[in-house]
Design goal:
By secondary structure, the protein is α/β, with parallel strands linked by helices. Helices cover 50% and strands 16% of the residues. It has 8 helices and 8 strands, in the order E-H-E-H-E-E-E-H-H-E-H-E-H-H-E-H. The strands form 2 sheets. It has a 5-stranded parallel β-sheet with strand order 2-6-1-7-8. Strands 3-4-5 form a 3-stranded antiparallel β-sheet, covered by helices on one side. Helix 1 crosses helix 8, helix 2 packs across helix 3 and helix 3 runs parallel beside helix 7. The termini are close together. It binds cytidine-5'-monophosphate (C5P).
């Protein structure tokens, strides 16, 4: 079983992905962490060819053997990761790694291009969306950021870069189910997504 979750920053992909992975016994893979780790490697002066990434079953990410999971979610790497994510050679490396992880096991994978590029034959494809304002409020709350308008500006810049890049731009797959999370609680979104997965399991 492959479940693909895509959508813009702070749309709720991680909370939904974690819940579905636990409910259906799948490995949960946050592909954004990989782009963040490549950006961290670049900051440390590592060329792409010298970057080795691995993840463990708990979703911890190792950069050349070092567990960097707790270093990845900073405003600096928000921006740097979205810049490295425009590079074709970076995407090729990471897409290949993501497909190898997904091969032969049940996964919930979340990112920007999972349903369109990484796992185009995924059993379930979900595209989460929410207004930029709502996403900025959630992100600012999550990070205890005092200035929501700055968070909003950063999110809009990142979305724009993700949507307009030449390689694998952020787009719902044509067979994705779009869930708008603006006026829904997390439980409602999880329940809607679980119904989609159950329906697909019945069809198989
Ligand atoms: O999901 P997250 O915010 O951690 O992702 C960081 C950045 O990595 C995103 O802004 C996006 O530019 C990039 N990304 C991507 N494709 C993915 C996952 C993330 O381009 N599948």
């Amino acid at each position: 079983m492959q479940i693909a979750i895509d959508g813009p920053a702070a749309a709720g992909k991680t909370s939904l992905g974690r819940a579905l992975a636990s409910r259906f016994g799948c490995l949960f893979v946050e592909t954004g962490k990989m782009y963040r780790a490549v950006a961290l490697g670049a900051e440390r002066g590592l060329p792409l060819a010298e970057i080795d990434l691995t993840i463990d079953k708990n979703g911890h990410l190792f950069l050349n053997g070092e567990d960097v999971t707790d270093l990845l979610h900073t405003p600096r790497l928000d921006e740097a990761s979205s810049k490295v994510a425009t590079r074709r050679e970076v995407r090729e490396r990471l897409v290949d790694l993501q497909r190898r992880i997904a091969a032969g096991q049940d996964v919930v994978m979340e990112g920007r291009d999972i349903g369109t590029v990484v796992l185009p034959r995924a059993d379930v494809k979900i595209f989460l969306q929410a207004s930029a304002r709502e996403r900025a409020l959630r992100r600012a709350r999550e990070r205890n950021a005092p200035d929501v308008s700055l968070t909003l500006e950063e999110l809009i810049a990142r979305d724009e870069r993700d949507r307009t890049r030449d390689v694998a731009p952020l787009n719902p797959a044509c067979d994705a189910t779009i869930i708008d999370t603006d006026r829904k609680s997390l439980d409602e979104v999880i329940s809607e997504a679980q119904d989609l997965v159950k329906e697909r399991l019945r069809e198989r």
